[in-house]
């Protein structure tokens, strides 16, 4: 770093006791002399050969070697000799005599006298100067500079090759150049960081030495290194910026190519294997289990499609991000890829959804068909069982249940038709998708199956309706039969009640002829009511016979109802006739008695015939006798009118009237008895 009085650079060659390799020394000198600029070299070098620790032969060899290495640049060679050595040797070789041949001046000088030729401030402490110099620090810094220079120069060449390759005309050359030289041998960021650190140290004009860091002025080579480093850094930044743009473009192109490749993978799979899977799935099944199996298969297909749809979503997001980046040259291609991908995915998704809806509609159709079939089976089973109800109420309940089942079947058939028509409409729309093939044949099989199921259910329902009509008529006839039987039994009960009323309450014979006639008239009306009840019961029993013949069954109650009716009616008739006879006898008795009792006693000629009194007495006795006689029925049973007290009361009234008639007779007969005496 020191300079001589001519401002030439000072080159120090320290020699040691060990053997010095001239080849290594020559290489080292060549390297050191390559550092200064040409302007510095023109001012010449002052070479200090420190031979204080070396032999004379070595020193001489080094001096002679300078002639071959740097003859033109060396202006002065100062050989620093030991204080008491070489004195005898110098006479054998005088350097000053060889100045013309060597091309530079050589002087032998002691270290303490070196200041005669070089200023002390330009000499290091080893030679009694004050110039601060740390060789290891300089060496390390120089190694860093050399490494940076080498790496940056190599990196600049590589980046230039990459960048220039990216600027080639054809896309093929561009791709080939990028592929071959894309990655630099060193990291540009690391080299730039090293250069910035080196430049920062050079610009600080201070170095940290091994002795604690004494400040000193930089040498010319260091000042020269600053513009070199700055120039290399500028070039690196420029090429690295271009390189980053190339990387960005390549990354974008690579990303675009990857997206395009993935898009084509998705499109090719959806239009290839995916569509083929849908082409093979066209049936709807012929039962719930078959439809469920098809649904399960479709879910497997959907699962495979879902994986590709997930790729589609990811690709769509990547394309959207690239579109937002706004590179106009890629917008058209990206939009075309996005549109193609969306069209294929949406079309395939629509086909999957259509297929899923079709299978769901088929499952619902078969479910309704199965429910309706079970309802028809239940209705048919109910119709096939013979009706054996206990009474009319159970028949009504059974008939109501039958009607409810038939109504449920009607609703089920209506629901089946709606589901079937909806399914047929969807199948007719299937041709618009077509899955790339003609589905007419497959659709015809599905349509025939659906229509066949609906027609079969309609026929089964019609057969059940016919059977229900027959069963309804039969059950209504049975209801009527039970009603007739019940009403006929009721008629028997009514007639029995009339008979009972006749025996227990119709006991009065009247106090006079007029009252007895009224009772007789009421009795006839009472008999008319009984006659109507009997006729009504007979008609009901006749209807029961007709219904039993129609139903081909034997009534459980009509067999004993008719004999009961006839028996009660016979008893009623006998009782009624007895009642009529008694009332008519009473009328005759009262009429005759009242006629006699009302005749005037001054007209005895009216009673000339005494047989009238005898007749009245005979009728009265006959009537009294009847009151004591029971009514005898054909089965030998007997019944009395009223209670004994009732009969006694009626008999007493007749006897009183007979007494009056007898008294009247006595009154009429006494004058006849006294007339002769007088």
Provide structural commentary:
This is SESD1 protein. The chain is mostly helical. The protein folds into three domains: about 10-135, Phosphatidylinositol Transfer Protein Sec14p (3-Layer(aba) Sandwich), CATH 3.40.525; about 275-475, Methane Monooxygenase Hydroxylase, Chain G, domain 1; about 505-670, Up-down Bundle (Methane Monooxygenase Hydroxylase, Chain G, domain 1). It is about 70% helix and about 5% strand. It has 17 helices and six strands. The protein has helices spanning about 20-35, 40, 55-70, 85-90, 100, 135-165, 170-180, 190-205, 220-280, 290-325, 330-385, 390-435, 440-505, 515-550, 560-600, 610-630, 645-675, and strands at about 10-15, 45-50, 75-80, 105-110, 630, 640. The strands form two sheets. The protein has a four-stranded parallel sheet with strand order 1-2-3-4, covered by helices on one side. Helix 11 packs antiparallel against helix 12, helix 11 packs parallel to helix 13 (about 440-505) and helix 15 runs parallel beside helix 17 (about 645-675). The longest helix has about 60 residues, at about 440-505. The protein is rod-shaped. The model is unreliable at about 175-180, about 205-215 and about 675-678 (pLDDT under 50).
Provide a quick synopsis of the model:
This protein is mainly α and 678 residues long. 72% of the residues lie in helices and 4% in strands.
